[in-house]
Amino acid sequence: MPVYRDEAVVLRTHKLGEADRIVTMLTRQHGKVRAVAKGVRRTASKFGARLEPFMVADVQLWEGRTLDVITQAESLGSYGTLITDDYGSYTAASVMVETADRVTESEGSLQQYLLLVGALRSLSRREHAPTLTLDSYLLRALSVAGWAPTFTDCARCATVGPHHSIVVQLGGVVCDSCAPPGAPKVDAATIGLLGALVEGDWPTAEAASESTRSKASGIVAAYAQWHLERGLRSLPHVSRESS
Q1: Are the beta carbons of 157 and 178 closer than 8 angstroms?
Q2: Which residues form the DNA replication/recombination mediator RecO N-terminal domain (predicted)?
Q3: What is the mean pLDDT of residues 43-55?
């Protein structure tokens, strides 16, 4: 069986038998990989600790018929402990890894990998409010996956904005002519925040009021769940206290 190495971020784990664990990872070069970590539940080993959710590691694997086998793991980013120590960061990170799991397959995406690692690193360092980091990650991950929203020109006819109606099913803001009856009107501050989150304009994002952040989060959640076609299980648990 061939051996290969790659960088990986751990998305989730499941128990297997008495001592093993199945680890689902998003790798830099091989896409999403499910592999067995043998014996990691017998002792509190450093090997097992490097393969917990939100951790980034350099892993060596044996290629198997159905599941690969992890033979080595060296830590590259010990974000797990720092993230789980803060509830807001933990709930945000849980949504991120669930989203990454949903938008990536075996062929993978270097952009999705780098985006997730950067977002987890930012959470662990408390660079921004967790909900701002989460909302920015969701919009960017969906953009990379082919569902880029527009918060400037009309998503339907491309009429130059600004516009004040948002329809998530159509891809963002729409002009008055394209807006269906009853389409919600959104204030300029919220639309401005959504645009800043897509662009990574953190000074603008952090200057937004609590009310504006809350409205933007609702729109981001609706947009994500519409395009992913079913709900994100982790999303209802996200803490909004530090947003």
Answers
A1: yes
A2: 1-79
A3: 81
